[in-house]
User: Which sequence fits this backbone?
């Protein structure tokens, strides 16, 4: 790895972020659909859904955040695919820069862009009545889990961006990920679901992540969900990183 890895990554990150801020509609668009879902479920369906919380937005917010992240990483795949097709990768590789910095710049851009979208969603949730008694360590834990989840899905997006045959294929892989929160504890407790659906909901990554964030926001004792959530995120991250770097080596060889 080049000794200039960090400097090269910072320069390429700056390039990507300039593109983001020149078309801030990307961040806004990523936030709009989750916000629309939050408004719909709180003000239309919320009165009919029993979750044991006084304010449904408190229950709903963690799942909405995960939907926003799953939507946002589609843009990472599209940006990477566009760079591959435009020939900019070949130009980068002709320069004396660390090759891995090209991928890491896209990964860090995803973290920043998704973080900005989550801030927008959080501000809207506060306007809708979201309140939390979470302490500073709890907030840091929530941020850490969301960042780890974003990082894991971003490396999945890198695989899609490197291997897709079209721009639609690059972004389309995220649709199943966006759908996962709907079959989890994000909108209703899993105890209300029929047997097979409940079994799936309780054994997929979103439920453990949502449960952990809900407990942190409510200052409830953290059970085993946090370890399950971390295991899912780290497992996906390691596997996705391995296959993404392998796909990258094939593309540049």
Assistant:
């Amino acid at each position: 790895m080049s000794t200039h890895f960090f400097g090269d990554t910072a320069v390429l990150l700056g390039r990507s972020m300039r593109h983001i801020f020149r078309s801030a509609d990307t961040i806004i668009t990523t936030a709009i659909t989750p916000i629309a879902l939050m408004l719909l479920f709180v003000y239309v369906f919320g009165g009919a859904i029993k979750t044991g919380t006084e304010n449904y937005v408190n229950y709903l917010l963690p799942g909405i955040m995960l939907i926003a992240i799953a939507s946002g990483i589609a843009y990472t795949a599209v940006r990477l695919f566009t760079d591959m097709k435009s020939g900019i990768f070949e130009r980068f590789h002709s320069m004396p820069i660390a090759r891995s910095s090209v991928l890491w710049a896209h990964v860090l851009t995803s973290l920043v862009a998704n973080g900005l979208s989550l801030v927008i969603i959080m501000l809207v949730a506060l306007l809708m009545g979201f309140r939390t008694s979470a302490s500073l360590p709890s907030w840091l834990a929530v941020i850490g889990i969301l960042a780890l989840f974003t990082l894991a899905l971003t490396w999945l997006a890198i695989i899609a961006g490197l291997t897709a045959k079209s721009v639609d294929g690059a972004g389309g892989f995220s649709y199943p990920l966006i759908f996962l929160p709907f079959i989890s504890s994000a909108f209703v407790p899993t105890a209300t679901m029929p047997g097979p659906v409940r079994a799936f909901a309780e054994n997929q990554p979103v439920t453990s992540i949502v449960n952990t964030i809900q407990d942190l926001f409510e200052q409830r004792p953290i059970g085993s969900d946090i370890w399950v959530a971390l295991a899912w995120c780290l497992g996906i991250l390691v596997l996705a990183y391995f296959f993404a770097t392998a796909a990258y080596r094939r593309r540049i060889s």
